[in-house]
Amino acid sequence: MAKKVLKFGGTSVGSIDRILHVAKIIKKEYAAGHKMIVIVSAMSGKTNELISHSKNISKNFNKRELDVLLASGEQVTSALLAGALIEHGVMSKSWLNFQIPILTEGEHSNARIINMNISKIDKFLSERGVAIIPGFQGISKNGDITTLGRGGSDATAVAVAKIFNADSCEIYTDVDGVFSTDPNKIPVAKKIDKISYDEMLELSSLGAKVMQPSAVQTAMMYNIPLEVRSTFTDRHGTEIFNQVNLDYTKSVTGVAYSKDEAKVTLISVQDKPGVAANIFEPLSKNQINVDMVIQNISSDQKTTDITFTIKRDDLLKTIDTIKNNKKIQYESLTHNDKVSKISIVGAGMVSTPGVTFKMFKGLAEEKINILAISTSEIKLSVIINEHDTLKAVKKLHTTFDLD
Ligand code: ASP
Ligand code: MG
Fold first, then answer.
1. Closest to 359 (Cα-Cα) out of 285, 267, 251, 207
2. What is the largest CA-CA distance in the chain?
3. What is the pLDDT of residues 65-124, one digit of tens each?
4. Are both 170 and 270 inside the same structural domain?
5. Ligand 1 in contact with 151 (CB < 6 A)?
6. Distance 10 CA to ligand 1 centre (A)
7. Which terminus of the chain is less hemmed in, N or C, by CB atoms within 10 Å?
């Protein structure tokens, strides 16, 4: 008999039929004797719908009230699922964030779970109850409702698994697991059976949408094994765990892409100490996350060009910040928001020479121009023109034997 955390995403609870189906999955596990804490997302599309309601009132809708609003989606699915289980003869109860309570810190819409009370739920589990917890939310020290950022039910699942010392944490979703690339766009994508936290963290941060990156990070920090699997099939999913247990036969595990990038270039910036700091300090103060930075070697020792990439949503704010920055001088500013980032990720890259060359050669064969490059031990990312995205992903997927 194990203690399990099961998390069901938005599509898994997207209709009453699906909620009834989820209740059946839980009932089966229950019959096997497991103790279960179940985390649910809002019904698919619900959170977006609530956000758009708020925007119809104000583009600057009050942050505290926005969290109260958004948290309601998960409250609905928690009650429906607990009710469905009771209907199927399984003792079950939903617990809202303030009833547990789940304590968070940090700003509204982007809070982190720091602790939660386990006594009441633990008692319920030992009485053979199935506890249902709404994902994506908690309360602050002041007692205000907070949310954990988009996709935040994953963060709830991982935090609950850690705090309750669960034996496993299963993430149920609408695909069979983690794929070598986006299976909706590239049909030859293959399901990955086992993947390390580091690779999963890179893939999810670089655009693969299966799991919230910060939840993967927490799982890695506390060594909580995860399994991503489908609600709709019985197939074995993807196990995510520590790298030491993995055997690498391939240099690259997956290809990720993200289309929400933009590129900014400052032409003829002075080439002297302190200039880069002066450019980037106000950006960080404005919460703009700079991703890649490239500085050309200056040929005249006096001026140079600096290119950097940011999230596309931050482009206007970035241009504004640079234009209002009295501390820097440059000849002109250019920007391009029709770019995307393509990344290859693999822990096997560390021990395989020539991966960089192979990637560049593959892109060259497709006549795809590389606009910026960044590397880390287990990933290589390039910025390219957005219209080449799928061509590039397909080519790299083939180049690295993933088809
Ligand atoms: N309902 C929230 C969202 O759509 C949280 C989640 O689904 O994990 O972002
Ligand atoms: Mg989700």
1. 251
2. 79
3. 999 999 999 999 999 999 999 999 999 999 999 999 999 999 999 999 999 999 999 999
4. no
5. yes
6. 7
7. N
